[in-house]
């Protein structure tokens, strides 16, 4: 989503967000992310407002003090930025790719099933199956911190069973143009 | 309502603070996948011996291999080296291009004794044109704007003949003009055609 993205050409404008809209975003975050009121409060204090940065192709980035906090495509679920996930790694369900897949991911590739089902990968146990179309955090074998965020293209049980094709579509990754945008 | 409600103690989970690489901006453990690995390593070695050992001691390197084969690992290392070489080459070329690019300061005669000054090429040196136009407007108490020239390239147009002052500002590296090499300045004069009045 953020390959070849530049603040100079792909941002169409910044606007304040009405307080009623801020409230509904806040409750959407509480229901979409694994986060409690207090932690969300420390990420985004109630008395402060986020700014909506409108970008090309219906991407909305929300910033606090200029720092991108989360973003959304159309009215799809909200994604925290990778930097926010580094601070709060539990916001979304997690999967892990093996070491061999890291360099492909960092080139912007989507993740294929074998990279997640191999010995170095990780998928949650069947009782915690992640459904298709769910935002997830991608961790990497041997690494402490998350490397990317993506959306599952099939359920985690199907990844195990089918074990080919795209498992997770990469949305943002370490070193992409959103990563480079520390301030907006 | 206003009686004895105490501030509830926040149950917020504290954030993790990740140490990012000063060179490539990645978390330190991901430097090996960046395009400046050698420099990342050197910098960390100088700054923080302990952290350096955490990531690059023999033991750490052994552990890191994880489930991938030695063959895949050496492929990765080759890949990283190639990436680095490419990034270096690109940076070199960009620097060369930058150092060769000219800044044209043109004095344009509009009417008898009326001039505007156009400045082109500052963006090659990472100068924010809008901001520097504002700097000129303030300094010379005149109008200054960023416009597209007939070739479709951005240039700054300042009302009045301020070409000599701008050359001086670049030479002195004033404000936003810091880092623009004075050797790259080209001064041009555009006279009004004779008999055009
Ligand atoms: Zn680095």
Automatic annotation (TrEMBL), chain A:
Task: Read off the InterPro entries from this record.
Answer: MCT-1/Tma20, Pre-PUA, PUA, PUA-like_sf, Uncharacterised_CHP00451
Localization terms from the record: Cytoplasm
- The residues that cross the membrane are none
Which Gene Ontology terms cover its molecular function?
Answer: RNA binding
> Among its keywords, does the record have Cytoplasm?
yes
* Lyase is among the record's keywords: no
Name the major location: cytoplasm
Classification via Pfam families: Pre-PUA, PUA
Q: Which Gene3D superfamilies match?
A: 3.10.400.20
Name the domain of life: Eukaryota
Could you list this entry's UniProt keywords, alphabetically sorted: Cytoplasm
Q: Which GO terms describe its cellular component?
A: cytoplasm
Tell me where in this chain the PUA domain is found: 93-175
Q: What does this protein do?
A: Involved in translation.
- From the Swiss-Prot or TrEMBL record, give the protein name: Translation machinery-associated protein 20
Instruction: Tell me what organism the protein belongs to.
Output: Steccherinum ochraceum
UniProtKB/TrEMBL annotation, chain B:
Q: Name one GO cellular component term.
A: cytoplasm
Q: Which CDD domains match?
A: DENR_C
Q: Does the keyword Cytoplasm apply?
A: yes
Pfam families recorded: DENR_N (PF21023), SUI1 (PF01253)
Give every SUI1 domain span.
Answer: 103-174
Q: Does the keyword Transcription apply?
A: no
Cite the Gene3D superfamilies for this sequence: SUI1-like domain
Q: Which UniProt keywords apply?
A: Cytoplasm, Ribonucleoprotein, Ribosomal protein
Report the main location listed first in the record. cytoplasm
Which SUPFAM superfamilies does the record cross-reference, listed alphabetically? eIF1-like
List, alphabetically, the InterPro entries matched: DENR/SUI1_TIF, DENR_C, DENR_eukaryotes, DENR_N, SUI1, SUI1_dom_sf
Q: Where in the cell is it found?
A: Cytoplasm
Domain of life of the organism in this record?
A: Eukaryota
Tell me, which GO biological process terms does this entry list? formation of translation preinitiation complex; translation reinitiation
Q: How does it assemble?
A: Interacts with the 40S ribosomal subunit.
Give the family from UniProt: Belongs to the DENR family.
Notes on the domains? The SUI1 domain may be involved in RNA binding.
Matching NCBIfam families, A to Z? Answer: DRP1
In Swiss-Prot or TrEMBL terms, this protein is called Translation machinery-associated protein 22
- What is the organism of origin for this protein? Steccherinum ochraceum
């Amino acid at each position: 989503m953020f390959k070849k993205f530049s603040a100079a050409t792909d941002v169409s404008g910044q606007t304040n967000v009405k307080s009623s809209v801020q409230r509904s975003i806040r409750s959407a975050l509480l229901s979409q992310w694994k986060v409690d009121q207090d932690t969300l409060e420390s990420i985004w204090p109630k008395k402060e407002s986020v700014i909506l940065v409108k970008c090309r192709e219906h991407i909305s980035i929300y910033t606090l003090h200029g720092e991108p906090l989360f973003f959304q495509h159309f009215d799809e679920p909200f994604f925290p930025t990778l930097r926010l996930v580094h601070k709060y790694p539990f916001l979304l369900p997690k999967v892990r790719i093996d070491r061999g897949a890291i360099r492909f991911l960092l080139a912007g590739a989507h993740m294929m099933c074998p990279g997640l089902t191999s010995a170095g990968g990780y998928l949650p146990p069947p009782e915690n199956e992640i459904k298709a179309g769910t935002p997830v955090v991608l961790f990497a074998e041997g690494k402490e911190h998350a490397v990317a965020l993506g959306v599952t293209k099939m359920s985690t049980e199907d990844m195990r069973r089918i074990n080919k094709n795209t498992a997770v579509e990469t949305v943002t990754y370490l070193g992409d143009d959103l990563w480079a945008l520390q301030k907006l | 309502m206003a009686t004895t409600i105490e501030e509830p103690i926040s149950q917020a989970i504290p954030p993790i603070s990740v140490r990012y690489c000063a060179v490539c901006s990645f978390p330190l453990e991901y430097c090996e996948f960046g395009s400046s690995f050698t420099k990342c390593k050197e910098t960390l070695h100088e700054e923080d011996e302990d952290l350096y050992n955490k990531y690059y001691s023999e033991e750490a390197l052994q552990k890191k291999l994880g489930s991938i084969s030695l063959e895949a690992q050496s492929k990765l290392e080759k890949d990283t080296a190639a990436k680095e070489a490419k990034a270096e080459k690109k940076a070199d070329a960009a620097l060369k291009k930058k150092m060769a690019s000219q800044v044209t300061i043109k004095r344009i005669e509009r009417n008898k004794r009326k001039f505007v000054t156009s400045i082109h090429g500052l963006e090659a040196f990472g100068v924010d044109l809008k901001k520097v136009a504002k700097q000129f407007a303030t300094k010379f108490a005149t109008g200054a704007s960023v416009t597209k020239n007939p070739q479709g390239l951005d240039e700054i147009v300042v009302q009045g003949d301020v070409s000599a002052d701008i050359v001086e500002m670049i030479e002195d590296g004033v404000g936003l003009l810091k880092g623009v090499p004075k050797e790259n300045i080209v001064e041009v004069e555009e006279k009004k055609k004779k008999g055009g009045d």
